[in-house]
Structure prediction request, 380 residues.
Amino acid sequence: MYIVILCEDKKMKLFQRLLVAPAALGLLAPISAKANEVNLNEISNYSNVESIDFANSFNNDGLTESPLLAGGEGLVDAPVDTPADSFSDTTTASFGSTFYVGTVGEGVDDGVVTFTYDFGLGLSTSFTGEDSLDVAMIGGNASTTAVDGVMGGDGTGDALVLDGVSYTFPLGGFTVTTGDGVGVDDLNTGACAYSAFTDTISDCGTSSVGGSADSAVAVSYDFGNGFTAAGGLGFGSEDPGIFTDQDASTIGLEGAYTTDVYGVSLAYTDDDSNGAGNFYSLQAAFTPDSIYSISAGYETDQDFDTNSLFIGSTIDVGPGALSVGLSTQGLADDHDDNYMYEAAYSYDVNDGMTVTPGLFLIQSPADDQLGLVVTTSFSF
Prediction:
C-alpha cells in the first residue's frame, strides 16, 4: 500500500483528509501503545487502495473523484465522513533532522571523522486561534562524539522521547507560557541577530540567561514602539520548591528595545540551582538595511568578578550567508586560553534542506582544538 503525505509551508495538518491519518499513527505508534483518539474501523475501508496515480484523479472503492490541486500542494475536499472524536483540524506537525559529519583535532576523537544525527518532532494545537498547546519530541545519537559536544546535537540513545509540553495563551495584554521544558527566558525578546554555527556561541555570550530551570511560567508584555518586558519563574525537577532556602527555583527578568536597525536587551537571572548565583546579561545588535548584521554580548556575575564576551557578524554572500564570530567559552576572571572562534557558510539547497560547512578553533592551556564540520539540516 502506498501512503501519500503532502506538506504545505513546512507544516502538515495531522490526521486530516483520507490517508494522512494512518500514516501519522504509524509514526506515533512506538510512543503510545494505546491510541483511543481515532477509531481505525472508521478508515479501514481505504485499506484496499493499491496505489495513487499522481497524474490523474483517483476513484477506488468509495473514494470520490478528487483530483490533486494544481502543483500537487494538497487535496481538495472530498465527501468523507470525519469521526466526531478525531484530532482537531488545527493540529499541525513540524519535523526536522540534522546530520553532523566532522572531526576535531586533539581530545578523545583526535582526527577521527564521525557521523551523528538528531531528529525533532513538534506538534501544535490551537483551541481559540490565539493560544497554542505545543508538544516537542526528540531523538538521535548526537551526544557521543567530540563534534557533538561542540555542536550541541540531541542524543537520546536513538529513542524518541518527550522533550517538553507547554501551553501559551494571551491574558489581558500579556502573553503567558507554562509547562515542562519551558525556561524563564522563553518569552524574552533578546537582541542577537547572529546565525551561530556551534552551540557554544549560539547564546551570543550570555549563557546564564534562563538559568537551569527545566519547567517554568514566563510572561511578556509589548508596550509598543519597540519596548518589551518579560519575566519568568522556574524550578527544577529534583526539588520543586519555590521561594525557600532549599529550593532550586530560578527567576528571570528582561527589558528590551528593538527596531528595524538596532536592538538592545538587558536581562537579570537569579539561579539558585547548585548555588549558581545571580547574573546580568547584555545583548546588542545592529541590523542596517544592508547585507550584514553585527551582534555583541556581555555577561557578568553579581560581584562583577567573572564575565563573558561575544561579537559576531552574519553577511549575505552569494546564495547563502557567512557567519564569523568569537566568544569566551564561559564566565571567567581571566580569558587567557578561554576564547573560541568560528566561521561557517550556510546555504539552502532547496526549501527543505540547508547545508552548512564550517570550522571552529577552541583555545586550551594544553593544545588548541581545530574542528571541521558539515551539517545538513532537513525540515518538513
Remarks:
- The two ends are 22 Å apart (CA to CA).
- Helices lie at 20-28, 146-151.
- The chain has two helices and 17 strands.
- Confidence is low (pLDDT under 50) at residues 1-80.
